[in-house]
Amino acid sequence: MSRLIIISNRLPVSISKHKGNYVYNESIGGVATGISSLSEPKERLWFGWPGVPNDRLKSEDQVHISSELKNRGCHPVFLSNKHIQDFYSGFSNKTIWPLFHYFPQFTVFEENYWNSYKAVNQLFCDEIVKHITKDDVIWVHDYQLMLLPQMIRQKLPQAQIGFFLHIPFPSFELLRNLPWRDEILNGILGADLIGFHEYDYVRHFLSSVYRICGLEHQLTKLVIGNRHIQVDAFPMGINYEKYANSRTNPVIQKEIEQLKHNEVKIILSVDRLDYTKGIIKRLEAYDLLLTKYPKYRGKISLVMVAVPSRTEVDQYAILRENIEKLVGRINGVYGTLNWTPVSYIYRSLPFEQISAMYNVADIALITPLRDGMNLVAKEFVATQNNKIPQGILILSEMAGAACELSEAIVINPHDKEQVVGAIRDAIEMPQKERLRRNLLMQSRISRYTVSRWASDFIHRLKEVKSAQNILA
């Protein structure tokens, strides 16, 4: 009987220590939600780092953690502090993250980081192959483990391996800057099915494979030796019902009532604090709006939620400082005793509070400079179900979600004048037009949920493997 083997940098369980005891908290992330909803395979095993450096763990601690995680369908891959610094904070987040998000100026090409990245991918491989059987379905996730599919393939040539990248895949002109581009591409090509959020990323990947590895493709298929590989787009969805029905939750109802205290229109912005999210440009556009259209002063308010992220990376600390300076300047120039132009929240908020904000917001302003998907946009649209008045979404064309949410007001995040015009149009848009747009988007995202995303990928992987066996 086949099992589903999920492999990601982090487990869907976070571990912390409280009063001498280890505390285990389940993740509510999209991948975990999608996989938990699968009807088949019934048996699953998830590999990943448990979140605690093994330098701090005694051997008995590791045994205890492994035993507890086994009961939760997980298996730990223990990493040292050095691995975390060089593999995760280093190569993954100072090399791959900025380069793949079109920020070459922030990209660090450091040999030590690359060596650590290889070593950790090999560490994952060595641990995983101890537990794999020939019928298992293997699903590798994201940019931290791009070498892993090929490493597993070398150990287990007949394995069923899928790989999904949750961030953008860049154009050839950017990827060619990476000294280790061949190894990265060949690592991914160890998979039988390679998935991305949208077709632009598929196109970039196939172009890079041809120009760097010399492999031609037929439509979205590649052949390496006797092995046929499928590359395709699988746009990740959300747990639609959870957000669409959020207004029926008594806790959220209470939060909504507390937030609806005046007639000011709310423009909502929710992001991780990351330079890819376009937060500075968003604030500059809002500043320009208040300058050009004084009639909106006192009548609109930008509520900006910035979730702390990668605080150990220099660019993120600088970004936070610049955001807070700009927020302070806007509030200082335009604010009054009775009105604050920007309400800035620098922390993660629970589902109930975020959902309440989605429900009361008149506009969601989501303007990343580059984003693999952006599920916040889909969550906001889902919550407009049965809501009067309807909120309207302003979305960057650089977000993967823009392909599915074409009825949003789609903008170029670098064009401040266009963003200002979009906010003005959104404020003035009639209720009937807001409803028309939202119904079309809701119809789409309610069908292609996170559950559908996961089941489609696994079903396609099995199809690809069956076709390989027929052609063998």
Question: Can you describe what's shown?
Answer:
This protein has 17 helices and 17 strands. The protein has helices at 30-36, 59-70, 81-100, 111-129, 148-155, 172-175, 181-188, 199-213, 240-244, 250-259, 279-292, 314-334, 351-360, 375-383, 416-428, 431-447, 450-471; strands spanning 4-10, 13-18, 21-26, 44-49, 74-76, 137-141, 160-164, 193-196, 217-218, 221-224, 227-233, 265-272, 300-307, 342-345, 363-366, 392-396, 409-411. Helix 14 (375-383) links the parallel strand 15 (363-366) and strand 16. Helix 7 packs across helix 8 (199-213). It is globular. The mean pLDDT is 94.
Q: Which term fits the overall shape?
A: globular
Number of H- or I-type helical stretches: 17
User: What fraction of the residues are assigned to beta strands by DSSP?
Assistant: 15-25%
Kindly provide the radius of gyration, computed on alpha-carbon positions and rounded to a whole number of angstroms: 23 Å
What structural category characterises the helix and strand content?
alpha/beta
The main pleated sheet reads as: 9 strands, mixed
Which residue ranges are poorly predicted, with pLDDT under 50 across at least 5 consecutive positions?
none
**Sheet with the most strands: spatial strand order:** 5-4-1-6-7-8-11-10-9
Could you tell me the number of beta strands?
17
For the termini, the CA-CA separation is 22 Å
Give the rounded overall mean pLDDT: 94
